[in-house]
Amino acid sequence: MKKIEAIIRPERLESVKTALADMGLFGMTVTEVRGRGCQGGISLQWRAGEYRVDFLPKVKIEAVVLDEDLGKALDAIVNKARTGEIGDGKIFVIPIDNAVRIRTGDTGENAI
Q1: What is the CATH T-level fold of the domain 2-111, as seen in this structure?
Q2: pTM (2 d.p.)
Q3: Residue 90 pLDDT more than 90?
């Protein structure tokens, strides 16, 4: 099992969520986050002055998938989240040793 952590643009969330659901991957956690990467923030003009926004709003999607579904899930996220501009985000893949479904006590692959 692998955990996918994808940091994407907020406006791309619905299309990524739909693409994952179309694959049968419904379980995920979504968190509104702020961050910066290579782009280093942006400068905005407001009334009489300019100000800098260093940490931009992003969305973090966390999902645990079976090893055999990892490639398809990554492709779906990349295809739906990519704009081709700086700030599209990052995807991290983390190995998962075990999982437990609290309600039933199922473990391992049966828990996801």
Answers
A1: Alpha-Beta Plaits (3.30.70)
A2: 0.85
A3: yes
